[in-house]
Amino acid sequence: MTVEQKKIVRNMRNKLYNYAEIADVLGLPVNTIKSYCYRNCLNTEELLKEVIPCKNCGKAIVSQSKTKPRVFCCDACKISWWKSHKEDHKKTSEISLVCKTCGTEFTAYKSADRKYCSQHCYQRRNCNG
Fold it and tell me: Would you say 16 and 33 are in contact if contact means Cβ atoms under 8 Å apart?
């Protein structure tokens, strides 16, 4: 296979032509085209893999087919990003309440049946009354 033919194969595979179509254009056996494509990562699975950048460092992540797309390249990047973006994700399960002892406003999870902003207020209210 000549250098020019290799360029044509690469070009046509990137446009997702199948092996038979390329073989017809170049006048080469289909198995020659298949072998060249597998040796040079031009098979369909490799061409369809999506490359996305890591959300933290920007390093390229190749997503695997039939799996959930990855957002971070490693655990260290995931932890680092979440630590530096705490305020970006809203906690929808929190509600605003008013302390029965001191009257200050505080937040608590919806499922928690809280009435006081702190242990100190709880003790003050229960010891006095």
Answer: no
Smallest Cα–Cα separation from 47: which of 83, 13, 20? 13
Q: Is the CB of residue 23 less than 8 Å from the CB of residue 33? A: yes
- The CA-CA-CA angle for residues 109, 113, 115, to 5°, reads 105
Task: Tell which residue, 109, 104, 108, has the closest CA to residue 121.
Answer: 104
Please report where in the chains the tokens 């209210």 appear, as a residue.
Answer: 125
What is the distance between the alpha carbons of residues 25 and 7, in angstroms, rounded to a whole number?
13
How far, rounded to the nearest angstrom, does the alpha carbon of residue 54 sit from its chain's CA centroid? 8
Region 35-64: what's the mean pLDDT?
Answer: 78
What is the percent of the chain where pLDDT is above 90?
25
Give 82-125 pLDDT, tens digit per residue: 888 877 766 667 788 899 889 999 888 776 788 888 889 988 88
